[in-house]
Amino acid sequence: METLIGQAPSGGLKGAGAAAADLIKDVNLASFRQDVLDASRKVPVIVDFWAPWCGPCRQLGPLLEKAVLAAGGAVLMAKIDVDQNPEIAQQMRIQSIPAVYAFYQGQPVDGFQGALPESQVKAFVDRLVKMSGGASPVDDVLEFARTAVAEGRLDEAEAAYAEVLQAEDQHHGALAGLAKIAVARGSLDEAAEFLAAIPEEKANDAEVAGARSALALAHEAADVGELGPLLAAVEADPADFQARFDLAVALHAEGRNGEAIDHLLDIVKRDRKWNDEAARKQLVKLFDVLGFEDPLAADGRRRLSSILFA
After folding, report:
1. Contact assessment for residue 183 and residue 215, using Cβ atoms and an 8 Å cutoff
2. Taking every annotated instance into account, which residue ranges of this chain make up the domain Thioredoxin (predicted)?
3. Is 293 a residue of the active site?
4. Comparing 81-85, 141-145, 277-281, which segment has the lowest mean pLDDT?
5. CB-based burial of residue 219 (10 Å sphere; 0-12 exposed, 13-18 middle, 19+ buried)?
6. How would you class 212 by CB atoms within 10 Å of its CB: exposed for 0-12, middle for 13-18, buried for 19 or more?
7. 298 within domain boundaries
8. Measured distance CA(141)–CA(139) in Å, rounded
9. What is the CATH number of the domain that holds 39?
10. Does residue 212 form part of some domain?
11. What range does the domain containing 268 cover?
């Protein structure tokens, strides 16, 4: 999938386009004050103590660099070869490598020793971004993409999600977003592939659940038929719950979510136990697709609660 970084929000993921040399530097005794202490007055600076002969250093270094680049300038990184700069290592009391310190406002504020898995490295960098009051560029791009989807600008949203995946190739929010775009375009097999790529530990995330529900509803919509006959069936027999249920599915497929919610709530009000509570369960799927903040979903949840607990 081709990325169009220029279509992301202003600034975007600067790490994807900015020179790595602006964010990651080899530092020695002469440049330590400027590149670490002075630079940390503006943003946190991660100092990676390493050596060419150190195997764990060679594993950790690229993970740190990837996370720093993904942060797009919200943090910087200084690499210090302890063999070439023993004075700094001694002053920092480095006993073994890899050793990582984070400086902010001229002072060490966090750190760890030894190699870490990528998820913990990312969490370390994210803590530093939040510590300095910055917002993660990934979060900014995701918010841009969500807004673009809501406004029907699917190409721009797709480009933004793809940009996030350049920085984090298994980001569950970006994969879920791409799955929802694929559903909107009718590419259900592609949507399923995006969902299958989401790490198992993120399978129950709200965005992932929403994308999964969107795909399930799209499959259902393909089986229920056209709106006209369904409307006629409901008008002829308001208690034909299956026709009303299918009508709600078809209405959602047409983007008429308010009407879909009304019909499902009508079923729940008339017979909440019908078909093993199918209408209530369908409402939960629909609310997942719309998202927690959506006004239709919020109103629907309130109305559903008033029926169930009346």
Report:
1. yes
2. 2-130
3. no
4. 141-145
5. middle
6. buried
7. yes
8. 5
9. 3.40.30.10
10. no
11. 227-308
163 found inside a domain: no
Euclidean distance between CA atoms 16 and 203, whole angstroms: 27
Instruction: Please classify residue 254 by burial: count the beta carbons closer than 10 Å to its beta carbon, then call 0-12 exposed, 13-18 middle and 19+ buried.
Output: exposed
- What 289-297 contacts at long range (C-beta under 8 Å, 24+ apart), as own/partner pairs, is 289/180, 289/210, 289/213, 289/214, 289/217, 289/252, 290/210, 290/257, 291/206, 291/210, 292/206, 296/257, 296/258, 296/261
Q: Are 82 and 51 in contact (CB under 8 A)?
A: yes
- Domain end position, chosen among 81, 108, 137: 137
Q: Which of 222, 223, 282 is nearest to 248 (CA)?
A: 282
Half-sphere exposure of 201 (CA within 13 A, CB side): 3
Per the structure, the count of domains in the chain is: 2
pLDDT score recorded for residue 202: 87
Catalytic residue among 43, 45, 54, 179: 54
297 has catalytic annotation: no
Query: Which residue of the set 8, 16, 24, 57 is catalytic?
Result: 57
Residue type, 142: L
pLDDT of residue 71: 84
In a domain, 191, yes or no: no
DSSP assignment, residue 293? T
Amino acid at 175: L
98-153 pLDDT, tens digit each: 999 999 988 888 999 999 998 899 889 988 988 777 656 677 788 889 889 988 89
Beta-sheet strand order (sheet of 76-81): 24-26, 76-81, 45-50, 99-104, 107-113
Q: 133 by DSSP, 3-state: which?
A: coil
The pair of structure tokens assigned to 229 is: 């006959």
Lowest mean pLDDT among 18-27, 67-76, 83-92, 186-195: 18-27
